[in-house]
Amino acid sequence: MDRLIGIETEYGIVVEGLSAADWVNESMAVVRGYAGDAVKGWNYRGEDARRDMRGFTVKSLNTNPDDAVFDTGVRHTLSHEEERSDRILANGARFYNDHGHPEYATPECRRLFDLVAHDRAGERVVHEAAKLRALSTGRQVTIYKNNTDFHGASYGTHEGYLMKREVDTATLIGSLLAFFASRSVFAGAGKAGVENASGSDADRFQLSQRADFMAVEASVDTLHNRPLVNTRDEPHATPSKYRRLHVICGDANMSEVATALKVGTTVLVLRLLEDGWVSPIKLRDPVRTARNISRDLSFRLAYEQDGGSSIRALDIQRAYLTAAEHRFAGADDETDWVLKEWRTVLDTLETDFLKLADRVDWVAKYALLDEFRQDEGLPWNDSHIQSLDLAYHNVDRDEGLYYGLEQAGVMRKLVTDSRVDAAVSCAPEDTRAYLRGLIIKRFGPAVKNTGWNGIVFHHNGEDLLFDMNPLVEANVKVLNDEFSSAETLDQVVELLRRSSQNN
User: Fold this and answer.
1) Engineered SS bond to 10: which of 155, 221, 241, 440, CB 3.0-4.6 Å?
2) Using CA atoms, how far apart are residues 442 and 278, in angstroms rounded to an integer?
């Protein structure tokens, strides 16, 4: 997809016999119990979540008062590093605790289907770690790849996209608002009911699990007053050249096609902006529009733009699609796949959305739950329906409803099980994640700490930094091939010396 891309998923966790106040400890235990090749120690020094791409740094981030229940008895007794319990894996991924949620961040990928495989690998990593925790305690540990507990709390699935810094910040934000507000028509995971509502307002099926929790158009916050466009400025690359778009408004997808579409369409929109294009769509109230789109399964409602005209959700998406088709059709196989699937999905939503039950999560879930709901005469926000909603996201392949659909051959797949199995232990070969994974796998005891943009390891009495900030282009594959033959740290150091001289 012409850039580094990645997905970070906070998984829901439920432990038999324990309450939410226990889940930070349980989440830490799940992470610490990971049995594969990994090293400890994350380098936080290069990170600053308060730095805003609009040119300032906020004094503090907004925190969600509901998170206090997860922090009880932990925040005051453990250091930040102890609480996070970071594990950096041999496939280049990061596995850690985040506010009582096991979080899995994929390694950097460059190809769309590689990212799909590594996102699915995360499901297996977290599930296997949870199984080990259950064996050690005798308590069942259930893991959900979703974004809501149906009791007012939301946890995120974040996307990361490397992009050129030269794109004007105001243009970037302004051009993404309408796209993100309407992307749930194909990228939503589906949700039974509406929280913080009553009566008929609560008895709805929604396209998106995150739409209800978006509060502002743009900000650096992620835990409270969440924005449609997150403006955090942490590039994890050479800052003068790049920024990393950190997207927090999306849902956790079980469907491989939905994951690929969510990321692939966003990449094409970023390519448009890097190419000088500016979105002509300016919604009057993007946050309210995102919420209303999530609650409209007819796709007939139109939403007010600045200037007084109105536009439907599908037509918002078609405006971005048409611009991408005009500029990028025929560029490469991945781009053509995204463009074709994007148009097919939008056209099918217009006529009969149930025909997309094989690839769009919210449609698959709706088709699965609605017949049962009607037979039993239950509202969408009934606890039995919401339990089935949760079960769709259970990552246990013997228990999860999504996996039942997949095993029945109902859901379209993009990657094989063997490719997902390989992604559990092997990093993509064409990104810097391969170098991170190789050093962890072969020289793990020498690693002192790790970050997305570098590794510090101890060798011959001194600490050496392997700076990966510049390693974001496709030509890193050549360096990866050279490092693959390194059997000793002496050889690694020599390759680093030569590489720095060549640069």
Assistant:
1) 155
2) 47
CA distances from 208 to 121, 151, 217, 267, 295 (A): 23, 16, 17, 20, 8
Q: Which residue has the tokens 């509502």?
A: 197
For residue 305, what are the contacts with CB-CB under 8 A and spacing of at least 6? Answer: 281, 282, 283, 284, 311
Phi, psi of 457 (to 5 degrees): -130, 155
Q: 238, 322 in Cβ contact below 8 A?
A: no
Amino acid at 185: V
- Positions annotated as catalytic residues are 98
Q: Encode pLDDT of 227-267 as tens digits.
A: 999 999 999 999 999 999 999 999 999 999 999 999 999 99
Q: Is 419 left (phi over 0), alpha (psi -120 to 50) or beta?
A: alpha
Residue ranges of domains in the chain = 5-419, 432-502
Q: Which residues are bridge partners to 87 per DSSP?
A: 95
Q: How far is CA 253 from each of CA 7, 144, 297, 362, 441, rounded to the nearest angstrom?
A: 11, 11, 19, 9, 30
- Give every CB contact of residue 501 below 8 A, 6+ residues apart in sequence: none
Yes or no: domain 5-419 corresponds to CATH 3.40.1440? no
Instruction: Round to whole Å and give the CA distance between 424 and 291.
Output: 36
Q: Encode pLDDT of 226-236 as tens digits.
A: 999 999 999 99
